[in-house]
Every structure is written in C-alpha cells, then in structure tokens.
Amino acid sequence: MTGPLVRRLAVTVSFLLAMLGTAIGVGAFGGDPIDEAAGGLLAADATHLAPAGSAFTIWSVIYVGLGAFTLWQWWDSRDARGIAPPAIASLLLNAAWILTIQAGRVGLSVVVIALLLAVLAVLFRRLTAVPPGGALERIVVDGTFGLYLGWVSVATCANIAAALKGAGFSGFGAPSLLAIVVLAVVAVIGVGLAIAGRRPVAAPLAMIWGLAWIAVGRATDEPHAPAVAIAAAVAAAVIALAAAAQWLRPRRRGLASTTRTATTTTTARRVR
Length: 272
Prior knowledge:
This is Tryptophan-rich sensory protein. InterPro entries: TspO/MBR-related_sf. The chain crosses the membrane at residues 49-71, 83-100, 106-124, 145-164, 176-196, 201-219, 225-248. Keywords: Membrane, Transmembrane, Transmembrane helix. With 272 residues, the protein is mainly alpha-helical. The protein contains 8 helices and no strands. The protein has one domain. The longest helix is centred in the C-terminal third of the chain and has 46 residues, at 226-271. The chain is globular and about 55 Å long. 42% of the residues are buried.
C-alpha cells in the first residue's frame, strides 16, 4: 500500500464488494441462495461433508467482524502487522466465490476457495508472528480472521465434495469412508492451528463449529451416515482438546517456574 488513505479506501471498497456479493448470495438482486444455486450441490443434504444449514449462521459473526475490521482500519495508522493486502484479497475472493457459484461453476469455485484459504493462511501467519496492539485488535482482527480461516478450512472440504459430486464422482463406491479420511485430515489441520502461535482461539473454534454441524447433518439428514457423524464429532473433540492443552501448557510452565523460584529463594535463605 502506498499510504494509509489508499489502504483504508481499498479495504473499505473491498468490504463493500464482499457485502454486495453476499447480498447476491442470499437471493437479492435476482440471485439464488447458495444452497439452491448450482443445482443444489452446496445444499445441506448434498454430500457427506455438507454441514447442516444452521452452521452457516457463523457468517453473520464473520461479516460483523469484517465490518469492525474495516472501521478499525480507519483508526489504525500504520498496519504494523502487514495484514491489509491479504485482508483485501480475502474480501475480493469471497465475493468472487459467490459469483462463481451463482454462475453454476462449482469446479471453478474450488479454485477460488483454495486461493481464499491460502490467503487466509498467510494472514494468520502474520497475525501469529506479531502480537496485537491490545485487546481491541485481538478481538477485531485476530478474532475475525481466525473465525474466517477456521470456517473456510472446513468449507473448502465441503466445496470440493460438492464439485466432485457434480462431476459424477461417487467416492470409489465408499463415500462414507472417503469422508472419514478427509475429516481426519481436517482434524490434523485443526490441531495445527490450535498449537500455532500464541494460543489462537477463533480458528479452532470455527473448525469445531463446522465439524459439529457436519456431525449433526449426517446424523439427522440425508445422506444419513452415522460413521461420518461420529468421525466429525471426534475430529471436533480432538481439535478442542488440542486447543485446551495449548492454553493450559503455558500456565503449567508458569506455575513450575514460580515453584522453582520459590524453592530457590527458600534455599538461599537457609544458606544465609
């Protein structure tokens, strides 16, 4: 970015474009809702990795956070963590993804969401490399983009599953088994996010949310797949345990350090 004003305007325009894309994605301006677009390939009952419909309420939180981030950019004068460029890219890619779905190009949407995931991963790396300037930045920036990354990590799998179904792929005749393998990979990614940097919360939380709703979908809706529901629930639990362990570990270290200091002090007094 060439200057604060250009950066702020770029973020604001990108956010407005993302909101326009979202309006189209919910059926405004003649668009079809996402679960009805592209022949319903992204509906809650379309594939073994599709989350139940209620899962998508997380977008309301993400969009509120992105709006807060846009306002925060007008307050932040330096962008010391260098997150504006990938943030802008994520907003534009979000709008592009919605437009590709509206056009029925589910295969192309996989490319777009993969790029979005890569951009959010870069952004997450920058956020974990440099501590936030305060509690507000931690909530508005780290929290928002953590949720964004966590959700897109799960949504990418569902998007790929939808594209494969649209291409006539049947999961080698064992779609449940293939879905379980994918969920295992998602669990590994979630554990990685949970232990990355300074104990991130939002990214693992969003992944747990998405996985939990996959479990609900496969337990209560078609395609009915109890094994996949269990696998999704286990993946969510594994990520939750990894995040909890990461939060407890520094505290244990701190307690051990305090104990060692107290012991050393007591010994020194006895020597005297």
